[in-house]
Amino acid sequence: MKQIIMVWSIAALWLMGGTGCQTADSSNQIKDTALAQLPKARPGEAVATFGGGCFWAIQEEFNEVKGVRTTVAGYAGGDVEFPTYEQVGTDQTGHAETVQVYYDPKVISFEKLLEGFFTGHDPTTKNRQGPDIGRDYRSIVFYRNAAEKATIDAVIKRENASGHHTGPIVTEVVPFKAFYPAEKYHQNYLKQHPDEYYIQKISVPKVEKFRKKMAGHLKDGLINL
């Protein structure tokens, strides 16, 4: 029954004007395809990198967290330098759509960010998030040192035991190597295109779920999506 519902949901997106992250990107609009700038971490700031399907929702989620100064949508986990969105979409680069988060660890911990991450997407589906299928949409989290690796392992163990998920977590846990910013038109995409069918039906529900989990850790003045 779940498979039938999923197939119908994907078919509905095709019929109603949205298909997935790769083809719902306002193709009828002028796009700034120049690569975004990669900011430098400020003194005392930490950096984390997460991938959980289409980066439009993930970026909005982390942008809303207290202690997060900025985020960048981009690509990581593969072996092609400075890939384009189209290249990553072929699923041949090894990269996943990811978001790099620049945050103050005195305000928000890496552990709390992880808890939000595992709520803001489905970490139990391998190489897939809803209608978005392929390794470029896989669930993946990167660690920069042994302490972060231990924290990730502990949070995954806790999440698996929580009963909050429909199956075991399949998120890849890998050492960080490189992150490549995506094109400028992808940055803060959800806020720029709030009325798109894909955004409303796929991205917004993820953000709303994230907000519930992270209540008390969100910035003031968030708008209704």
Automatic annotation (TrEMBL):
Has an important function as a repair enzyme for proteins that have been inactivated by oxidation. Catalyzes the reversible oxidation-reduction of methionine sulfoxide in proteins to methionine. PANTHER family: PEPTIDE METHIONINE SULFOXIDE REDUCTASE, PEPTIDE METHIONINE SULFOXIDE REDUCTASE MSRA 2. It is an enzyme of class 1 (oxidoreductase). This is Peptide methionine sulfoxide reductase MsrA. Residues 1-24 form the signal peptide. The gene is msrA. NCBIfam families: msrA. Belongs to the MsrA Met sulfoxide reductase family. The keyword Iron-sulfur does not apply. Its EC number is 1.8.4.11. It catalyses: L-methionyl-[protein] + [thioredoxin]-disulfide + H2O = L-methionyl-(S)-S-oxide-[protein] + [thioredoxin]-dithiol; [thioredoxin]-disulfide + L-methionine + H2O = L-methionine (S)-S-oxide + [thioredoxin]-dithiol. One of its GO terms (molecular function) is L-methionine:thioredoxin-disulfide S-oxidoreductase activity. Pfam families: PMSR. The keyword Chloroplast does not apply. Keywords: Oxidoreductase, Signal. The active site is at residue 54. SUPFAM superfamilies: Peptide methionine sulfoxide reductase. Residues 48-197 form the Peptide methionine sulphoxide reductase MsrA domain. It comes from the Bacteria. InterPro entries: Met_Sox_Rdtase_MsrA_dom, Met_Sox_Rdtase_MsrA_sf.
